[in-house]
Amino acid sequence: MSSVAAIEPAQASGQRLRERAFRTATFAAALLVLALLGGVALSLLLGAWPALAHFKLDFLTREIWNPVTDKFGALAPIYGTVVTSFLALLLAIPVSFGIAIFLTELAPVWLKRPVGVAIELLAAVPSIIYGIWGLFVLAPILQRHVQPWLIDWLGPLPLIGRLFQGPPYGIGVLTASFVLAIMVIPFISAVMRDVFEMVPDVLKESAYGLGATTWEVIWQVVVPYARTGIIGGVMLGLGRALGETMAVTFVIGNAHRIGSSLLAPGTTISASIANEFAEAVGDLYTSALVALGALLFLITFAVIAAARLMLMRLDRRALSSV
Amino acid sequence: MSRRALRKLVNALALGLSGLATAVGLFFLGAILWTLLRSGLAGMSLQLFTAMTPPPGSAGGLLNAIYGSVVMTVIGILIGGPIGVLAGTYLAEYGRNARISGVIRFVNDVLLSAPSIIVGLFVYELLVVRMGHFSAIAGAVALAIIAIPVTVRTTEDMLNLVPQGMKDASTAMGAYHWRTITSVIYPAARSGIVTGLLLAVARISGETAPLLFTALNNQFWSSNLAAPIANLPVVIFQFALSPYPNWQQLAWSGALIITMSILVLSIAARFVVSSLGPGGRS
């Protein structure tokens, strides 16, 4: 007992010191996470400033993108980003919804895990792989089999016909949207699956007890209950689609113009940066590209923040897959 | 048709479509893997791992690119991993209920989904502009920034799974909090933390966008961290878009190597968590 008492004070002060050091280290690391976001925002704003100061609001409203005469407007990339993401979601939402239903309500237990893991692996495939696959496999198939059909059958229609004009290039806005859709499916379906699983069994069982079919239970009980989570998952997918770079860069064709046809080449914010940044000559050109990045940051930040706020109310741990 | 028959029909139709949707998802995974195997295996040879990236038209391999990727991924995880684990520790232990932790969790979740090309621009402004040239270390820092949110998230989740009773027992023995964390909580959550790190490695080893204007590329062998360095993703990007068949073939082989490594890592991570992990949720 006496020996304990003898070494106690010295040891205790050493322990206290380490306690404080460790605590400070963890706190500093946590603060660094905050600093990262702040640093990203600040550096993008500073880098974008010359271009924004030079072009003012014209930067957002003009389509011209001419490195030779140093005239830059972001309208074409903004348009491309919005259109490809919108189309991608249009394609991805029903498929993701179906996958989530299959995994939570239909699949036998032995099938649930392997299929679930396979879909999650789809999310682990790096985006550049989607790009190279889209360019060499998907684009030729679309060019030969799908796009001629769209041009022949949908092209002559009033209004929507304008979306399907011109030669079938293979690469272009439609192809980019298609690849994006494949990429965001695992993210959206993973969130949907997780929120569907959170619906209390009692609710579903009482609906079944009243004689509802499986689909009626899903549509009238599960979906309303999980509504916030579903929207959150879709927004998260939208955030991915808006910022996705490599896959789009391969297949969109990189044309700084706004074509009314979905079959025409276009560009997105991220594709423009990826293609041009390393080779950009001149301060204004570089700054214009950083300004595009700042714009992308603002848009995705708003979308992701909204998605996370919606998902925050749900159990964080259940959403670990995204 | 009776109302009952209609309801059954709608039900069968909807469920059939959801099965179809799953088949579509699996089909694309299969299609991508099949293309990779078919096109990638055609160029598989020992030379791939022993020779440098060639000029157009001549034979070569991917040794310098593989080396560069491994170096930057390792440095990236060595920087990002500890920061992520410490920050996750703060969120799960010291700052569990602190108001700032809510903000940090939210910001971390936003970073988790933020476009990686933005990180590339950030590191460009932060390091490349200041150093005056592209460099391997800039690429590694960009990858570290992408690894941090992944690690923070999984670490916090895994530490939260450690039973409170274990922590209380340690505290009751008179251990300081840091001692409890390092000697009781970390060992208990080890497999979970390792899983998080594996997932982070899987995430950053395929990242291309943040390397485009940080590490850039290098046609030759370079082990100088202050100089541009070759790396698989950017080599794949450049070679795939080139008109030269031998470059395109190398791009496919590189794509196969990278995808297989990542899939193995992802599956290994799931295996670790389900065989040893606390809670075992995948």
Keywords:
heterodimer; A: 322 residues; mainly alpha; two-stranded antiparallel sheet; 1% strand; flat; disordered N terminus; B: 282 residues; 0% strand
Q: Could you tell me the strand content of chain B as a percent range?
A: under 5%
CATH topology of chain A: MetI-like fold
Distance between the termini of chain A: 53 Å
Strands of the widest sheet of chain A, in order across it, are: 1-2
Second-tier CATH architecture of chain A: Orthogonal Bundle
Major pleated sheet of chain B: none
Assign the structural class of chain B, choosing from mainly alpha, mainly beta, alpha/beta, alpha+beta, or little secondary structure.
mainly alpha
Q: Classify the helix fraction of chain B into a percent range.
A: over 70%
What general form of chain A does the structure show?
flat
| Low-confidence parts of chain B | 277-282
From the alpha-carbon coordinates, what is the Rg of chain B to the nearest angstrom?
A: 23 Å
End-to-end C-alpha gap of chain B: 45 Å
Taking Cα atoms only, what radius of gyration of chain A do you get, to the nearest Å? 25 Å
Q: Number of folding domains of chain A? A: 1
Quick one: which chains have the greatest interface? A-B, 98 and 97 residues
Number of DSSP-assigned strands of chain A: 2
Q: Number of DSSP helices of chain A?
A: 12
Strand content of chain A: under 5%
Under CATH, the homologous superfamily of chain A reads MetI-like
Explain this structure.
The complex is a heterodimer of chains A (322) and B (282). Chain A is an all-alpha fold. Chain A has one domain (58-321): MetI-like (MetI-like fold, Orthogonal Bundle), CATH 1.10.3720.10. In chain A, 75% of the residues lie in helices and 1% in strands. Chain A has helices at residues 2-55, 58-61, 75-106, 109-124, 127-153, 173-197, 201-209, 214-225, 227-243, 246-251, 269-276, 283-312; strands at 65-66, 71-72. A two-stranded antiparallel ribbon of chain A has the order 1-2. In chain A, helix 1 crosses helix 12, helix 3 packs across helix 9 and helix 6 packs antiparallel against helix 9. The model of chain A is unreliable at 1-7 (pLDDT under 50). Chain B is mainly α and 282 residues long. Helices cover 74% and strands 0% of the residues of chain B. Chain B has eleven helices and no strands. Chain B has helices at 3-41, 63-94, 99-113, 116-131, 136-160, 164-172, 177-188, 190-205, 209-212, 232-240, 245-275. Chain B is globular and about 70 Å long. Chains A and B meet through helix 1, helix 3, helix 4, helix 5 and helix 6 of A and helix 1, helix 2, helix 3, helix 4 and helix 5 of B.
